[in-house]
Amino acid sequence: MKRFDVIILVLFCICGCKKLGKPETFTQDWLTMGTFASCTVSAENSEQADKYFKIVKDEFDKISKSFNIYNTNSIISIINRDAHFSPVKVNDNEFCIITNSFACSQKTETAFNPVCLPLIRLWGFNGGTNTTVPTQPMIDEVMERVDISKVICETNTIFFIGENMQLDMGGVAKGSAVDMAYDELEKAGCMEFMVNLGGNIRAQTLKEHLLIGIRDPFDKENLIGTLKLKSGEAVATSGDYERFVILDGVKYPHIIDPRSGYPVKKTVATTIVAPNATMSDILSTATFVLGKEKIDDVLYQFPDVAILVISKNDGKMSISMSNEEVFDLL
Ligand code: ADP
Ligand code: MG
């Protein structure tokens, strides 16, 4: 189970004022999509807050239903089973998420690869059962199955023209769910709220910004700094410390470089602030793969984001960041 990567330091200044007509702050936490979810809302009363929580849960459930690879009836399982034979029809929202992730793949030198499930499974993640380090011939064989140019996305259908390909929305599903919940809460008239799904956070606030703590990846009880999150913006973190496998006595993180076929070793954590949670989710994974050397290239493609990369070299930690107005390191 993944814990939150970022710690909320300050949220709303509304703090339980019970006078008539004044909104109160309500929070609910629950488990979904293999991680923790949390929602804080400003509402007139607990009935209204419950309505808002239901809106968020319903949106998360929609994404979970679509993209859960362990549910044989989910659209992703149907695609992975049938899209080799004929195009599989998906709904508008699923098509939008899938095609956006392919577009982002092209903008990140395919560091983000939405069809890298065969590789991820080869390394023992997401239902993979491997318990030893794969051999180079095994990796070479699987690399042929993660070529994004062998997927045709057309008129709400997905079709694999390559053999044994498999879609994996693990690097974008949570961010997309947060954006859907954000849009629905806004439509419902909620003025101040924060939605958090496994560290993918998006908030609406009347304050100038919220202050979010960034956890020290080497000492989880401590923070290495804070970041400023403006209303409407999202933040996501990918880290090598939350999900990993130990193969032949060596620890491998769950983010794989689809260009080499190997788990990423040089990055410890990435934190991205972006205009929406889909983008911060995708780019936290992509930047984790690309590493600190490619921060400027990511910014060229996505000028509205702020990037923080924590790397390690010979056991030494280094921090690189793109935007000093957003990040404040201790
Ligand atoms: P988490 O899902 O643990 O919060 P991320 O958001 O960074 O972490 O996404 C990691 C997930 O993304 C993995 O569990 C896997 O499903 C998928 N993934 C791993 N490597 C890649 C990659 N290079 N491109 C796209 N998806 C990836
Ligand atoms: Mg992510």
Protein traits:
330 residues; alpha+beta; T-fold; 8-stranded antiparallel sheet; 8 helices; 29% helix; 32% strand; globular; binds adenosine-5'-diphosphate; binds magnesium ion
Please give the structural blueprint.
Elements: E1 6-10, E2 24-32, E3 35-43, H1 46-67, H2 75-82, E4 88-89, H3 92-107, H4 117-122, H5 136-143, E5 151-154, E6 157-160, H6 173-187, E7 193-197, E8 200-204, E9 210-216, E10 219-229, E11 234-239, E12 244-247, E13 250-253, E14 256-257, E15 262-263, E16 267-274, H7 277-290, H8 295-301, E17 306-313, E18 316-321, E19 327-329
Antiparallel strand pairs: 1-9, 2-3, 3-7, 4-6, 5-6, 7-8, 8-11, 9-10, 10-19, 11-16, 12-13, 14-15, 16-17, 17-18
Helix pairs in contact: 1-6, 6-7
CATH class of the largest domain: Alpha Beta
- In DSSP terms (H or I, runs of 4 or more residues), the helix count works out at 8
Strand content: 25-35%
Low-confidence runs of at least 5 consecutive residues: 10-19
Rg over C-alpha atoms, rounded to the nearest angstrom: 20 Å
* Number of domains as seen in the coordinates: 2
Number of strands: 19
Description of the molecule:
With 330 residues, the protein is of the alpha+beta class. The chain folds into two domains: 8-65 and 174-329, ApbE-like domains (T-fold, Roll); 75-160, T-fold (Orthogonal Bundle), CATH 1.10.3980.10. It is built from eight helices and 19 strands. It has helices spanning 46-67, 75-82, 92-107, 117-122, 136-143, 173-187, 277-290, 295-301, and strands at residues 6-10, 24-32, 35-43, 88-89, 151-154, 157-160, 193-197, 200-204, 210-216, 219-229, 234-239, 244-247, 250-253, 256-257, 262-263, 267-274, 306-313, 316-321, 327-329. It has an eight-stranded antiparallel β-sheet, with helices on one face. The chain has a four-stranded antiparallel β-sheet with strand order 1-9-10-19, with no helix packed on it. It has a three-stranded antiparallel β-sheet with strand order 4-6-5. Strand 12 (244-247) and strand 13 form a beta hairpin. The two termini are 28 Å apart. The model is unreliable at 10-19 (pLDDT under 50). Bound molecules: adenosine-5'-diphosphate and magnesium ion. The site of adenosine-5'-diphosphate (ADP) has 23 residues, from helix 7.
